[in-house]
Amino acid sequence: MPKTIKILGTGCSKCQSMMKVVTDVVTQYHVDATIEKVEDMMKIMEFNVLVTPALVIDDIITIKGRVPSKEEVLALLNT
Amino acid sequence: MFDWLQHITNWLVYDVMSLSKGEHLSEALNFFIYDAIKILILLFVVIFFMGIVNSYFPIDKVKNYLSRNKLYGLEYLMASLFGIVIPFCSCSSVPLFIGFVRGGIPLGVTLAFLITSPLVNEVAIGLFIGLFGLKTTVIYVVSGVLLGTISGIILQQLKLESYLTPWVQKVLANAQKEQDTFIAEKQTISKRLPAIWKEVKSIIKGIIPYLLVGIAVGGLMHGYIPEGFFENYMGKDNLFAVPMATILAVPMYTNASGILPVVQVLIDKGIPLGTAIAFMMGVVGLSLPEAMLLKKVMTFRLIAIFFGVVTICIMISGYMFNLIL
């Protein structure tokens, strides 16, 4: 089953770096997943995060407030 | 602490480049090299240390703590103190604000946090130690915390909840004392360090252009402006100096790390420390971009009151510094 990846962030530089890391991992390792960038503040609020960017995989918040490394994202996607 | 660096700089400027002592150019260059290296070392140390603290003490814990515990008035001070260790990116201010409101934390306490967090952060502390020494840094940090605490208490007394935007008021009505339990990322320190180090590098990379320009301008001014130059215009007896400096500072933001090295030179050349600190607090603490972001959760009126109260508190602390120091 493909995974749903959501990246929550209003467009600060950290959010863009996270987006890039995640897209890189998905294309590089051919991960079966859809990536969605959530920029609408109201939608971000629904996830109850305090700091952006946040990485949401299949509706579970995995990382918040920092830019993860590629290895980290890959590990999260493989579990 | 940095004698060794001064020796190296002296050697570099006077011996290697064989510029003669006491000339404008050589003094400016000496100042630039010494200051740039010293500040960078301090920034690395402070940001790295704060990164470690923050990695073990994330914002969610702070929110839960403030939301769960009855602190009998100390919550303003606590929120303000938490503001020091929690790094604050202005783009996170809205989710943070909503999260606090949702957790049932009073508006004034949330604002206390929002005021102190940008004012006393790792970059400001690193720059302060480098430019003004430990004593002034401690004074700055203490007054920053007090400023957040007192402004928070005042803002709470004003009962401003009705000036929040409607959707935030809805969130406020449904606020509960802590519903979510925070699951900490369980990682060993050796796993955390690379991430922290990466963060340090990215913060420094972001501010380095501003910093170098600031120190360069500072260096030139240091070499070319005569001692005591500003005393006549902006000395302690000029009562308008503090408000002027503060109001000038509020709209500025991005160049905070560039402006501090310049301010250091201004102090050297006769601007009183209190006036300078009021200016810095205005630059670092309040900004137009922040106001734009807060518009999502606050009505214009609330933002105006919020900025107004903080600005007045900054001016008061400026006057107080000028009296005490």
UniProtKB/TrEMBL annotation, chain A:
**InterPro entries given for it?**
Thioredoxin-like_fold, Thioredoxin-like_sf, THIRX-like_proc
Gene3D superfamilies to which the protein is assigned, alphabetical? Glutaredoxin (3.40.30.10)
Cite the active-site annotation: 12 (nucleophile), 15 (nucleophile)
Q: Name which cysteines form disulfide bonds.
A: 12-15
Q: Which UniProt keywords apply?
A: Disulfide bond, Redox-active center
Pfam families listed in its UniProt record? Thioredoxin_3 (PF13192)
Q: List, for all copies, the residue spans of the domain called Thioredoxin-like fold.
A: 4-77
Protein origin, superkingdom: Bacteria
Write down the NCBIfam families for this protein, in alphabetical order: redox_disulf_2
Can you name this protein? Small redox-active disulfide protein 2
What is the native source organism of this protein?
Wenyingzhuangia marina
- What lineage does UniProt assign to this protein's organism? Bacteria, Pseudomonadati, Bacteroidota, Flavobacteriia, Flavobacteriales
UniProtKB/TrEMBL annotation, chain B:
- Keyword line: Cell membrane, Membrane, Transmembrane, Transmembrane helix
- Predominantly, its location class is membrane
Transmembrane intervals: 39-57, 77-100, 107-132, 138-155, 207-225, 240-263, 270-288, 300-321
Q: Where in the cell is it found?
A: Cell membrane
Topology relative to the membrane, per the entry? Multi-pass membrane protein
Q: Keyword check for Membrane, yes or no.
A: yes
**Cellular component GO terms, alphabetically?**
plasma membrane
InterPro entries the UniProt entry points to:
DUF318 (IPR005524), UPF0718_permease (IPR053166)
Q: Which family does it belong to?
A: Belongs to the UPF0718 family.
The protein depicted here goes by the name Permease
Organism, scientific name:
Wenyingzhuangia marina
